[in-house]
Amino acid sequence: MTKLLIILIPLLPLIGFLITGLGRNFLSKSASGFIASATILASFIISIAAFLQVKNGNLIHAHYFNLINIDALKIGFDFKIDQLSSLFLLIITGVGFLIHVYSTSYMHNEPSKDFAKYFAYLNLFVFSMLLLVLGANYVIMFFGWEGVGLCSYLLIGFWFKNNDYTNAAKKAFIMNRIGDLGFLLAVFWLIARLGTVSFDEVFSVTNVAKLSTYDFTGITALLFLGACGKSAQVPLYTWLPDAMAGPTPVSALIHAATMVTAGIYMIARSNILFTNAPVTQNIIALFGLATALIAATIALKQNDIKKVLAYSTVSQLGYMFLGLGVGAYTGAVFHVMTHAFFKALLFLGAGSVIHAMSGEQDMRNMGALKKHMPTTHITFLIGCIAIAGIPPFSGFFSKDEILAAAYAESPIIWGVGVLGALMTAFYMFRLYAMTFLGSFRGTNEQAHHLHESPKAITIPLIILALLAIVGGWVGIPEVFIKGGHHLEEFLQPIFAQSNAITQKYETSHSTEFMLMGISVAVALVALIFAIGKFKNYKKENEVTSSGFANVLENKWYFDELYTKIITNPLKSISCFFNNIIEKKGIDAVVNGTGKFVNYSSRQLRWLQSGQVGAYVLLMVLGMLVLFILQLFIKK
Amino acid sequence: MDIKYYIALSLTLFTIGVIGVLTRRNAIIIFMCVELMLNAVNLLLVAFSNMHSLSVAAKASPTFASDAQIFVFFIMIVAAAEVSVGLSIIVMLYRNTHNIDVNFLNRLKN
Amino acid sequence: MATILFIILSIVAIGSALMMITSKSPVNSILWLIVVFFAISGHYILLNAQFLAVVNIIVYAGAIMVLFLFVVMLMNLNAETEPAKNQRQQIIAIITGGCFLLVLLAAFKTATSQQVMVGAGNAGLIKTLGKVLFTNYILPFEISSVLFLSAIVGSVIISKKE
């Protein structure tokens, strides 16, 4: 495969961005939608070719030019396609393409100018993500990283006339910046220690040997901070639910195919560094677990259909980080993949529901959509089953792999993980039951308007539903089929270095069966309970939540906490700087200089009285002074 | 007789001229004070000339000490020219402002 | 004898100078200044500078002061037009002048003392000066005539009515 073809993968979306972006005033809706989708499809096709090439064992490394060339530090504009990046390429372009197709219908009510703008942003988003994944060094990755952050800002704030949406966009951007700082510092650290940022060189055995434990811990902790921001982990996750302000397909894109997976990709890519830093790994596992649990509990009490999905994403990302933390890199990447399928499916399905409900997002006003939207209903149900972890749907395999690895690390972690899985099943089927079952609780007008979505929406849903079913079959654990885990085999070269260091967890088959059985049983119980409880949901039955439920409804008061401990002190400090330092200090110095000059010149002005006598007097005084000086100096 | 006496006398006259310039506001009197100062300096020059006419250098060259007196001569020339111009300026000022108070002429201020 | 003459002339000079700056009427001032010039001419004679003594009387006391007198009387400036000057500034001026004198005197106090021969030395004789003036200083002497010419032209132009 030539270098030219490789660069086309990110270049095509960029071209699409330029065409739709620059031509937004004169392109028709169908034209811009077609261009945007076609470029992604072309990228997808090339990605498949690249994937096949890699599968045959031909890794691709393309060097284009030197980005930075200072003395010994050479940072090239290099692309690298190996097993990991080729997998991500497929996910990004594949799911991205489906979301594009979906968007052509979903966004059809926008004016054509905004429509084209929307697709330009989408293309730029995909471009940034591809750059992130393709980059052969941390700097290229950082470009993509930043581009993704920018695009998320643009897309979350797409309906920028609404102030809340703009604030949500800003929040996402600022939260990401905190993480970006960590990433950037980690890259500088690497440059300082090794003088290179290229993946091949950094991860080479000789270079890894050069780093001390402190280096490993420091670099990985900073990288994790970056991943936290981008992948919405506990301290920095609050932007993701707010990111629901964007159009629904954007949420799907951010949550499923791009953006949030960037952190996972980055850590999976740097796995050797993390394996060498057990402290950081424990931190990651801890944060992942906390995220999974906290987000799941919040999701239990949310009534906005998109908010539930958003918290479920945060929760699932927590699982992925748990997987990374316990060393189950393959499991994490596997979960990224399956999650991309079913989460994109769920979001698009939710979008379809919202579309049918004319923009209504509150589940309390839905219900009984089953008979109005059969395709959406079926596909959505598949997505729910997949995320709940019921075999043989995809979510089961990937989640189970992470949980098995967690069990090997500590049964407590596993227990908490299963608790999270229970909650996942519960809130997903609460969502399902409230939306599709029972009786319709919306207005008559909405009831009249209910309809199945057009083909451009249902076809991506069907494709994603199929993927959500079969997507897990590439990673069937050994207990079922010997050698069934194709994905692990495929990704083996990437994690070989790490696997050589860590012991592969060994659990007996009976234990593993038991673990699976427990998690599936728990999920099923939660599922049935949720359906039973919310099938005949009535708005009137709603009781004002109290105590713990209230805490959950308010999302553990995280936003309030941030306001209290970060925003308010910052504001006070800014006020202090503004009122005291700025006004009394800097302004005083500046104004004081002027005032002093003014004052002193007023005092000096009487010297220039214009009276000759006064001048002569001064002259004589001056002479006097000179004479006196001379008198003293002489001696 | 000591040269210092002449120096003292000359300085006294000079200072009186300075004080006159500082205290008086009549332009003509100020002008006269300037003349007085010039004369004080002339006196000093002549005294030094006399002093040097007795020195060793003056023995070798008979005109050595005369230079100072030539200087006085030229100062007088310049003073005469200066007075003629200065007085005509005062006359013109008086014609324009009907006043020769220097404080009235604080045009330098602006 | 010479010392007595010096003292008398000095007292006359200083006294007349003081009168000159203190008298209210400009005409009186001019007359006192002429007295000062006469005293200074006396000093010149004491120092055996006859030529300068004569020239001083002719040029200063005769020509220049008459010019002053002329202007004052022609323009009728003798009236006591001068208002009382700012008292504070006057005191400052006198103090400054006194300090000035003191400092100058103090500066010369340590000078090496050298004698002046009263009535001796031929530097100031008309013969010697004439020789020097018309040999060494002939060029400045001629140029001074240009100076005078320009002064005449200048004063005529300045005082000419528009």
Question: How would you describe this structure to a colleague?
Answer:
Chain A has two domains: 407 residues, no CATH class; 74 residues. Helix content of chain A is 74%, strand content 3%. Chain A has 26 helices and two strands. Chain A has a two-stranded antiparallel sheet. In chain A, helix 6 packs antiparallel against helix 9, helix 16 packs across helix 18 and helix 16 packs across helix 22. The longest helix of chain A is centred in the last third of the chain and has 48 residues. Chain A starts with a helix and ends with a helix. Chain B has 110 residues and is mainly α. Chain B has a single domain, classed as Helix Hairpins (Orthogonal Bundle). Chain B contains four helices and no strands. The longest helix of chain B is centred in the last third of the chain and has 32 residues. Chain C folds into two domains: 88 residues, Up-down Bundle (Four Helix Bundle (Hemerythrin (Met), subunit A)), CATH 1.20.120.1200; 37 residues. Chain C is 76% helix and 0% strand. Chain C has six helices and no strands. The longest helix of chain C is centred in the middle third of the chain and has 26 residues. The termini of chain C are far apart. Chains in contact: A-B, A-C, B-C. Chains B and C meet through helix 1, helix 2 and helix 4 of B and helix 1, helix 2, helix 3, helix 4 and helix 5 of C.
